[in-house]
Specification:
mainly beta, 13-stranded parallel sheet, 39 strands, 29% strand, globular
């Protein structure tokens, strides 16, 4: 369930907390090929999959020409030429040798440029397209498709090398992840479409990704292999997953119709700026930010997300407020260097999603607890996991520092609109929440009882204010049993949404 996190189970595996199985019968409408007409930067969000930028029709000066009629020509010419060589792939279908490991082993500074109509096709025989640890590789204007990467592994930049630039590419119809990530990687104006697990898996062995840029991409229809159904509870699905990334720009992307979450940052991520994206019609949350730190989430248009998973849990009688923006054990921390010391969520439009924003903490999930399924990981404030044990954990500073805390979350100047007739729901689909569970585990935990629930609600600087609500919104505080109307939410002891306005009529569209 969303309330738990799983850790990498193997060196290349990013195994994250589950966001629930999906069912196609409840999915939103199929992709239309263009983003919704209104909202943040919607006209600037590129329709990359339908209208990709064309590559050069002639080889760049000094480039080595790659012939699609020669099987394995790309890999062979990469081997025979020195680093910093430019390769121009002629129009047509390029193939590697028909062995599993016949991938292109890149060299430092290599550039792979596709002519119009150039396709590198793995034909479900090759596992990887571009591999190796060489830094500074560039891939542009190339379609990479039908590779059979194993679960949790990726097709492009399989070995997570640093400094790669992937631009104007189509990476589609592959198993596993379309691409992996390294430090200072730039992923711009690509179509990441209908890959079996993720569009991109931003995980690197050693947790050393920094300075990641994900900009102006279309990320659509990923997790075609429905991994939540195949491995119940794996939490290993969605548009993009980020693991232990320090510094990321995620802007101008159109993230839509993914099975699972759209964007999911999990486990000791820090210093994210997520802005000017259109996030819509994803089966699960549009955005999950979990066991992580310090983020700016602004100017995004977020609509029609979480219909499948929200409805599924509500149909089972689960009263947990599964939300479209889900902040779980994540918050602002001034001691972790970043461009902000908060999680600030502002100037976003959220329209006709299944619920709004949930701030959550699992009281049993902390560093060195058996309930922390990201085995071996601790907070960024404690280097030695073994320190988070009795007796030290029961007093300062470890009492605070051993826990990933949902704190210093500032939610303001957003617009939340909900028309239940559009979402086709009658209850449980219009909630904001700040809550935790009752701590019970393990026996030596210092966080038992309502301590965490009271802290997240009243003591950790989590604040809604100056927002606009249209539609039948309700609010949850402390635990799932505490359901509030807007007046109770604004009144003592919660005193949330000062300066906000509420209009309870159904709808909320301005035309």
């Amino acid at each position: 369930m969303w309330r738990r996190l799983a850790a990498p189970a193997a060196p290349l595996a990013l195994v994250l907390l589950a966001s629930g199985c999906t069912g196609t019968s409840d999915r939103p409408a199929e992709p239309t090929g263009e983003p919704s007409a209104s909202g943040a930067r919607s006209t600037a969000v590129a329709r990359v999959c339908a209208e990709p930028a064309a590559g050069p029709a002639k080889p760049p000066k000094g480039a080595v020409t790659v012939d699609p009629a020669v099987v394995g020509d790309l890999a062979a010419k990469t081997r025979s030429h020195p680093p910093n060589t430019t390769f121009w792939l002629r129009p047509g279908e390029h193939r590697l040798k028909p062995e599993r490991y016949a991938q292109v082993m890149t060299k430092k500074g290599n550039r792979y440029i596709g002519a119009p109509g150039a396709v590198l096709d793995g034909r479900k025989k090759n596992q990887y397209a571009f591999s190796g640890t060489a830094p500074g590789v560039t891939i542009r204007h190339l379609t990479v498709q039908r590779f059979a990467a194993p679960h949790n592994e990726g097709v492009v930049n399989h070995d997570m090398a640093d400094g790669w630039v992937i631009e104007h590419a189509k990476i589609q119809y592959n198993s596993g992840a379309g691409l992996m990530a390294g430090a200072r990687q730039e992923v711009r104006a690509n179509c990441l479409r209908e890959n079996g697990q993720y569009g991109m898996n931003a995980y690197k062995t050693g947790d050393s990704i920094e300075g990641l840029v994900v900009e102006d991409n279309e990320i659509v229809g990923n997790n075609t292999d429905d991994w939540e159904r195949r491995q119940r509870g794996c939490g290993c699905t969605g548009g993009v997953k980020f693991w232990a990334v320090d510094g990321a720009e995620v802007r101008g992307n159109w993230v839509h119709d993914n099975r699972g979450a759209g964007l999911w940052a999990d486990n000791n991520n820090n210093d994210f700026r997520i802005e000017d994206n259109v996030l819509e019609s994803n089966d699960g949350a549009a955005l999950m930010y979990e066991t992580s730190y310090n983020a700016i989430i602004r100017n995004n248009t977020i609509r029609r997300n979480n219909w499948v998973e929200g409805r599924k849990y509500a149909g089972r009688g689960d009263d947990f407020p599964y939300a479209t923006i889900y902040i779980s054990e994540a918050g602002g921390e001034p001691r972790v260097r970043a461009r902000t010391d908060k999680i600030e969520i502002y100037r976003n439009l959220l329209e006709d999603n299944w619920s709004g924003i949930t701030l959550w903490e699992n009281a049993d999930r902390f560093c060195n607890s058996p309930a922390n399924t990201s085995t071996g990981y601790c907070t960024l404030l404690v280097k030695d996991t073994d320190r988070c044990a009795r007796p030290g954990i029961a007093k300062a500073p470890l009492y605070s520092d051993c826990r990933w805390k949902t704190q210093r979350v500032d939610i303001h100047d957003n617009r939340f609109t909900l028309d239940p007739s559009v979402v086709t729901c009658s209850v449980a689909c219009g909630r904001m929440a700040v809550l935790a569970n009752y701590g019970t585990y393990p026996k030596w935990s210092p966080y038992k009882g309502k301590r965490v629930a009271e802290a997240i609600t009243h003591e950790q600087g989590n604040r809604w204010h100056d927002n606009v609500y249209r539609g039948p919104w309700s609010f949850v505080a402390v635990d799932t049993s505490r359901k509030l109307d807007s007046g109770q939410w604004q009144d003592a002891p919660y005193r949330q949404d000062a300066g906000s306005t509420f209009e309870a009529r159904a709808g909320g569209r301005d035309g």
